[in-house]
From TrEMBL:
Compartments, record wording: Cell membrane
GO cellular component, one term: plasma membrane
Coiled-coil residue windows: none
Protein's name according to its UniProt entry: Permease
Keywords: Cell membrane, Membrane, Transmembrane, Transmembrane helix
Protein family membership: Belongs to the UPF0718 family.
PANTHER family: UPF0718 PROTEIN YCGR
Amino acid sequence: MYYVTKFIKDSFILLLFCHFVFLFLFAELVNKLSLFGKIPGSFFNVNTIFLSIILEAIPFILLGVFVSAIIQAFVSENTIQKIVPRNAYLAVIPAALIGILFPICECAIIPVVRRLMKKGMPAHVGIVFMLSAPIINPVVYASTYFAFKSTPYMANARMFVSFICTIVIGLIVYHFFRKADILRVEKHIHQHDHHHPQKNKLLTTFYHASDELFDMGKFLLIGAFLASLFQVFFDRNVLLSLGTSTTGAPAVMMGLSYVLSVCSAADAFIASSFSSTFTKGSLLAFLVFGPMLDIKNTLMLFAYFKKRFVLFLMFVIPIVVYISISIFQGIVW
């Protein structure tokens, strides 16, 4: 029964995606043949934004699932235990900086971290890695620097505040979930390892990558669709009226970053477009919060982590980011 339900759900989402692609390619033909008159332009705008989010995310998703599969096939539990520092507090520091060596966006990092946790990585270390890698990496630093050419210190501020936030969040997770299992129990068991000898690691890698891609892809599609709806129908003029408030503007921009769900490698250019109307602190809040939590990765988190833990993260992350931004802008700006 489970497999039948899963097949129906996956087929529906795949057909929905094909429907969006068809509308994008044959928009004029659809308008001509429509029995209900001309289709509103906003509908096609949703379609275009949806596909742009998917096309932007797919390369990183593929990277993430293959890295996850490689970890499953080639990295042992003993290796993880040797790499991670034994001191729970010191372990969060290298976890927050590892993105410098492995720049992975927020779309791809979740399956990687889930796999590392299954291999024995402590939960709080994995969460720090998950939150920091999409921000603290050379690709994001460069894009932020070029997006804010007139104020290049924004790139340094983004790295510094993100580092502090991820460390604090990781320590909070350690305090509350140090002995808890935060990963969801899989409802089905993949049979690939039983049918194929472990020595064929390359074949095992491809099997795990395909499983991961189909498991996560549907949540990406749903998240991208919701984000595209918000981008088209949400009135940004409401935001602009709050842009000059040092207390309210950061929260507004954090909400906007959650809704827009832009990849961390490109979100700096979106943020810079608000430079004339929003405070520097609120722009920084946009840059720090968005890669940690947005619509699409929220759905992915619910797919891989227990509901209670995801709700906890959704409560803690905004608070830590907002307080950190408030302190930073009060001291520096």
